[in-house]
Amino acid sequence: MPESKPTLLRFVLQSLGHMFRGPPAYWVWVGFLFALILLGGWHYYLQLRDGLVVTHMTNQVSWGFYIANFTFLVGVAAAAVMLVVPAYIFHRRDIKDVVLMGDTMAIAAVTMAILFVVVDLGRPDRFWHLIPGIGRFNFPQSMLAWDVIVLNGYLLLNVGISFYIVYNHYQNKEPNERRYFPWVLLAIFWAISIHTVTAFLYSANSGRPFWNHALLAPRFIASAFASGPALMAIGLQIIRAISDYPIRQSVINHLALVATIALQVTLFFMLAELFTEFYNEGEHAASARYLYFGLDGHAALTPWIWTAIALLCIAVVILMIHPLRHNPIYMNIAFVLIIVGVWIEKGMGLIVPAFVPTPIGEIYEYTPSLIEVMVSIGIWALGFLLFTLLAKAALPVHCEYLRRQQAREQCNWDGFERRHNAD
Amino acid sequence: MKRPDKDKSPEQVSDLARRRFIKGLATAAGAAGTVAASGGAWGGSTLSDAFADFFQQHYQRMNKDEIDAVLERIERQAKRRYGVDIDCRNTPPREGVVFGYAINISKCRGYRDCVHACVEENNLAPDTQYIRVVEMDHGSLDLRHGDHYYDHDTVPVEGKYYLPMQCMQCDNPPCVKACPVEATWTEPDGIVVVDYNWCIGCRYCMAACPYQARHFNWTTPDLAPDDINPDTHYLSNRPRPRGVVEKCHFCVQRTRNGRQPACQEACPTGARVFGNLLDPDSEIRYVLKHKAVFRLKEELGTEPKFWYYRDA
Question: Is residue A49 part of a domain?
Answer without folding.
Answer: yes
